[in-house]
Amino acid sequence: MVKICCIGAGYVGGPTMAVIALKCPSVEVAVVDISKSRIAAWNSDQLPIYEPGLDDVVKQCRGKNLFFSTDVEKHVYEADIVFVSVNTPTKTRGLGAGKAADLTYWESAARMIADVSKSDKIVVEKSTVPVKTAEAIEKILTHNAKGIQFQILSNPEFLAEGTAIQDLFNPDRVLIGGRETPEGQKAIQKLKDVYAQWVPEERILTTNLWSAELSKLAANAFLAQRISSVNAMSALCEATGANVKQVSFAVGTDTRIGPKFLNASVGFGGSCFQKDILNLVYICECNGLPEVAEYWKQVIKINDYQKSRFVNRVVSSMFNTVANKKIAILGFAFKKDTGDTRETPAIDVCKGLLGDKARLSIYDPQVTEDQIQRDLWMNKFDWDHPIHLQPTSPTTEKKVSVVWDAYEATKDADGVCILTEWDEFKSLDYQRMYDNMRKPAFVFDGRNVVDDDKLREIGFIVYSIGKPLDPWLKDMPAVA
Ligand code: NAI
Question: Whose CA is nearest to atom 41 of ligand 1?
Answer without folding.
Answer: 11
